[in-house]
Amino acid sequence: MPARAIANPLTEKILEIEKQGGGYEDLKTLISGSANRKYIYEGDDENGFGWAGQVMGLIKDSPTVAELFGRIINEAEEIRTKWGR
User: What InterPro entries does this protein map onto (predicted)?
Assistant: First the structure.
């Protein structure tokens, strides 16, 4: 079943197995719930993976919280100015 995941060493291994014709039986331990928990809760990207949605491809950078809030405030001020309020 196709799915999106955050690229890391384990997802590269999964893709390689699929390219070689591997099926579910070859992948089931790599795509299990425990492998997902290793990444999400333990930060183990060598042996775990994280699911990703469509928006993953739209992310261009990872700003700090301060930078993000600064951007939001600037955008809000631009909109307010544009709308004349």
Answer: Aldolase_TIM (IPR013785)
Judging by beta carbons within 10 Å of its beta carbon (0-12, 13-18, 19+), is residue 52 exposed, middle or buried?
Answer: middle
H and E: helices and strands count for the chain: 4, 0
CA gyration radius for the chain? 19
What is the DSSP secondary structure assignment for residue 57, as one 8-state letter?
Answer: G
Please say if the pLDDT value at position 84 is more than 90.
no
Domain ranges within the chain, ordered by starting residue? 9-82
pLDDT at 27: 94
- For 12-23, the pLDDT digits (tens) are 999 999 999 999
CA 80 – CA 85 distance, rounded (Å): 5
Tell me the C-alpha distance between 33 and 31, whole Å. Answer: 7
Mean pLDDT of 4-13: 92
